[in-house]
Design goal:
The protein has helices at residues 16-27, 40-51, 56-59, 61-66, 70-97, 104-112, 114-149, 165-186, 188-215, 223-228, 244-253, 256-261, 267-270, 278-307, 311-316, 321-328, 331-365, 372-375, 385-399, 412-439, 454-472, 497-516; strands spanning 67-68, 153-154, 157-158, 231-232. It is mostly helical. The two termini are 23 Å apart.
């Protein structure tokens, strides 16, 4: 498509490349309101950062360690990532065709109608808010552990003890959440740079961690241990590591390590309106982020397993990755590893808020969110200010239960959040994939497409997600089974609450939403009536026309 010179005079200073992108966006029905400043690499970087092998593989390592052990981690990670790639390939094809910030819910609207879009959008919102909350709280856990290694005692808060671990972790979470929010509001011009830096932090950081885990421990586990040892610390099946129950139940619970880590790659779609040459760049960003994260994640997990010499100590500590570092590394080395991981998690959470706020903004632009007229606005920096604030507040609210936990200080609510957001996101991912498959050869693909291979790729993705949703809804310990004599509400797997969300959203749809939400709205046909959110206390530029957003 040739550049439209008529758009070159627009206030955003479009270039020839962005002229083409703006024309494609206009064809989809939208004005260019967000700043189109992301390169292909930056678009990839934001999804790669949200996936973050320095976050998921570290914070959810215990799920796979306790439910399968080293062998299932070593073999399970690459196998599961291969299936995740089928989902990512399917989403890349849709991203290339529909390059809007709405991503999954927008695809569902065009392929299936308003009802499909409504459910998809709300599953996506729940999942993305859960990512902001889960990653932020995970970073707080690691930061607390790091400060504890240094024995920091400041303003009466002693991070060196474990007396108030839940309240201290929550305090750190609040600080981190404020940091995320400030960066997304006031540092929008350097967000792309931060995501680019994050890629190299993850690559170099993972390399440094692997080097530390290779050279610091005096001994390492054998290959037979890493690729052959199985563990069942779940409490189910008498700790047995064989038989149908182990392979078809225990192992499935361990899926959450891979599945929680490999989420958020829809960010490349949500930032398509801010990406140059989006029909190709954003599509590649989706699948490439999964592919390279799979490689880096496998390498770092293998490094964990070879360094895990003190199996008894690791089991006693709940199978966490931190227990490997503290049991098998020197104090200085453990601090270095946890520091690298914590910084990576901070990058991850900030990028997660960017993605979630763009989805909230887009869903509001199409009149689906309550208070949509407020959340669809962008400020003078072309940042969806109100959407950023809304996501941050929602993430804070759903994390409040993490103030309570077990007697050992385990924040059960955090693990509930990670599972809920994983299930919510994969439901949002697979609905438009099903709708695309249903269209068959009638679907007109974009520049990046699967060609005739879409059939087996889509089918594989759908079957895999169905298995994942079932696996992540299973009780993880006997005490989490309501009819078990040892039942304890703090150990329940609350992932099925996603289905409750679906029921609530469904009732809402039948009662009123179906009469109001008609799918994507063509803002390209509207007058310029959206007033940018003012950045108090700085007044708008003198002489600015009312409703100056374009």
């Amino acid at each position: 498509m040739s550049a439209d010179e008529g758009t070159a005079a627009q206030p955003i200073g479009a270039t020839t490349a962005t002229d083409k992108d703006e024309q494609e966006l206009a064809h989809l029905g939208y004005k260019q309101e967000l700043s189109r400043a992301f390169s292909s690499f930056t678009n990839f970087a934001i999804s790669f950062t949200i996936i973050s092998v320095l976050a998921g593989t570290f914070t959810n390592f215990s799920f796979a360690w306790n439910n399968g052990g080293p062998a299932l981690i070593a073999f399970g990670w690459p196998i599961l990532c291969g299936f995740v790639l089928l989902v990512a390939f399917s989403m890349s094809e849709l991203t290339s065709k529909f390059q809007t910030a709405g991503g999954t819910y927008w695809w569902a609207a065009k392929l299936g109608g308003p009802g499909w879009s409504w459910f998809t959008g709300w599953f996506n919102i729940v999942g993305l808010v859960g990512i902001v909350a889960g990653v932020g709280y995970g970073a707080a856990i690691f930061l607390n552990a790091l400060l504890g290694l240094y024995g920091l005692n400041v303003l009466g808060i002693n991070f060196g003890d474990t007396k108030h671990v839940l309240s201290e972790t929550f305090l750190l979470f609040m600080i981190i959440l404020v940091l995320y929010t400030v960066v997304n509001i006031f540092a929008d011009r350097i967000l792309g740079l931060l995501n680019n830096i994050s890629v190299w932090w993850h690559v170099v950081g993972v390399a440094a961690i692997i080097a530390i885990l290779i050279f610091v421990p005096d001994h390492h586990q054998s290959a037979s241990f890493v690729f052959g040892n199985r563990i069942n610390n779940s409490g189910f099946h008498g700790g047995s590591t064989g038989g149908p129950f182990f392979w078809f139940y225990i192992v499935l619970v361990g899926f959450i390590l891979t599945m929680y880590t490999q989420t958020g790659y829809d960010a490349s779609a949500h930032t398509a309106e801010e990406t140059k040459d989006a029909s190709i760049s954003a599509a590649r960003g989706v699948w490439r982020s999964v592919f390279y994260s799979a490689i880096l994640g496998w390498l770092v997990l293998l490094a964990f397993l070879f360094a895990a010499n003190h199996v008894g100590a690791i089991n006693k500590a709940g199978g966490t990755s931190i227990s490997i570092f503290t049991a098998d590394l020197s104090s200085a080395a453990a601090k270095a590893v946890i520091l690298i991981a914590t910084v990576g998690q901070l990058f991850c959470g900030a990028a997660g808020l960017t993605s979630a706020s763009r989805t909230w903004y887009a869903f509001s632009r199409d009149r689906a969110m309550p208070g949509w007229s407020l959340f669809r606005r962008v400020n003078q920096r072309r940042v969806p200010f109100n959407a950023v604030i809304a996501v941050s507040i929602a993430a804070f609210i759903i994390t409040v239960p993490a103030l309570w936990g077990t007697a050992a200080g385990v924040p059960w609510a955090y693990f509930a959040i990670t599972a809920i957001c994983t299930v919510g996101l994969y439901l949002a991912y697979i609905i438009p994939v099903y709708l695309r498959f249903r269209q068959g050869d009638k679907f007109e693909p974009g520049p990046w497409n699967l060609g005739r291979h879409y059939r087996w790729v889509n089918i594989g993705a759908m079957l895999f997600v169905a298995l994942v949703v079932i696996a992540l809804d299973l009780p993880t310990v006997p005490a989490g089974v309501p009819w078990d004599s040892s039942f304890d509400a703090t150990t329940v797997n609350y992932s099925p609450l996603v289905l409750l969300v679906g029921i609530i959203v469904g009732i809402w749809w039948q009662v009123s939403a179906k009469n109001r939400y008609k799918g994507p709205v063509r803002t390209i046909d509207e007058p310029d009536e959206i007033t940018p959110t003012p950045e108090a206390p700085v007044p708008p530029p003198a002489g600015a026309a009312p409703g100056g957003a374009t």
